[in-house]
Amino acid sequence: MEETYKVYVEVGVIFERDGRIVPKWLKMGDVRYDIERILDCRRAASMKAGGCGLRYTIRCRGQNAYLFFEDTEPGAWFVESRQAVPAG
Amino acid sequence: MRTILHSDANCFYASVEMLHHPECRNLPMAVGGDPETRHGIILTANYIAKRSGVRTGAALWEAREACPGLVILPPDYDQYLRFSGYLREIYGNYTDRVEAFGLDECWLDVSESCGIKGEGEKIAKEINERVRKELGLTVSVGVSWNKIFAKFGSDYRKPDAVTCVSRENYRRIVWERPVSELLYVGRATSAKLRKLGINTIGELAETDPDFLYAYFGKMGSTLSIFANGEDRTPVSLIGDQVPVKSVGNGMTMPYDLKTDEEVRVSCYMLSESVARRLRENGFAGDVIELYVRDSELHGLTRRHRIDVPTNISFEIAEEAFRLFRENYRWKKPIRGLCVRVSNLTAEKRPYQLSLFRSETVRKKQLIMDQTVEKIRRRFGDDAIRRGLMAFGPRITPRKRQEQVIHPLSYFQKGNLSGA
Ligand SMILES: [Mg+2]
Description:
The complex is a heterodimer of chains A (88) and B (419).
Chain A: E1 5-8, E2 10-15, E3 21-28, E4 31-34, E5 37-46, E6 51-60, E7 63-70, E8 76-81
Antiparallel strand pairs in A: 1-8, 2-3, 3-4, 5-6, 6-7, 7-8
Chain B: E1 4-9, H1 12-20, E2 29-32, E3 42-45, H2 47-51, H3 60-66, E4 71-73, H4 77-91, E5 98-100, E6 105-109, H5 114-117, H6 120-135, E7 139-144, H7 147-156, E8 162-164, H8 170-173, H9 187-195, H10 201-206, H11 209-216, H12 218-227, E9 246-257, H13 260-280, E10 283-294, E11 299-310, H14 313-327, E12 334-346, H15 359-379
Parallel strand pairs in B: 2-4, 7-8
Antiparallel strand pairs in B: 1-6, 1-7, 2-3, 5-6, 9-12, 10-11, 10-12
Helix pairs in contact in B: 4-6, 11-12, 13-14
Bound molecules: magnesium ion (MG).
Magnesium ion (MG) binds next to strand 1 of chain B.
């Protein structure tokens, strides 16, 4: 089985007027990925990376991925990654 | 007819840990007390560990003996409280009658929402599914027309199951089981019942209630009501009660304390974290407790009930320090301290104002606590400190936390069944 890592990432977000939080890009290592579309947003657990929160299904560079907002104190964003260390 | 659900998160602490440590998911794993603090016992084990004979309450060494590869993680109560809140948030989508029974169990009265949200069983299945998907945990849910049988149902099949105890099947499901499986029939009571020839819940139900009353007193009548499914105890409103008994924080000092001033600073450090955790969970309490351990490891506990429930660090710290001043004679230096607040209520609950405390001042202190908390969240724990901290031991109490959590008694709220 392939290992999945929980990798915290830097995320650029927009706070909409109605209170929604919309992620616009994320940064893994030195690479910035623009979020082209948000396909879904719901509360979900990540059994692969370990944790739970608000899960955004995003499209980056033509591929779908999950981006989680963990509402701990302080909140943080993470992705399910194949690499323990974000690719540079 | 009422529709009551009882939802029980399976191996709660262990499941929360497994969610966050996927690498442990397929290993025998348990959450256990920190061996350093001397109560090294297993609090919860996952099913793999349970199958190898790891029991709740066992000493850590005992558990390791039973199950050599056992992974033991220290408890993270803040995390469990958070997940307990997430669970109640999901339950709150179905009804405002959600009563916590410990951190991992809740009763839900869905009688009113059955029409809108579907029958009890359907709601139970939906909850089970949502908890798995949204929180990565499993719950077993019992559905019945009373709290006692609903609780029985959630214990009947686990993990990850829904059991309905209906008027049609309760004789088969509940009545054939031993009396010890009924809520509040402990070892002593079931031994007494067995002596009377009452072995199953059905036999208990069919015993003359007057006879039970004569033998057990009021508890006898209650047991008869429970066994017959006649309990009418309501499910309390969400946010009306608190699922834990106390919130405390203790630490072992890196060096022995020798002065009042050092103790005062330590009281403040501990109280700040206790107050923060109380507020995070919407609790307040009016019994302040201080535990002191001296350099020869002798312990002293003193508690005092103050006039209003509080979650303000200043009030907790000053009371803890006052307890210290009044009770400690400084024969020995101090190795460890613990501050605890108990007799908790929901902070939003109305309380009798005190003649001797200014609510304006209290309000200000509360806002101050909240502001400090915000600053720390954004800029780190060291960004702002009380002036007096400059005079105390340089330690952070956050890591060394311990907290007693157990369910409140079914009877504690004075609603002794529908009798
Ligand atoms: Mg449980």
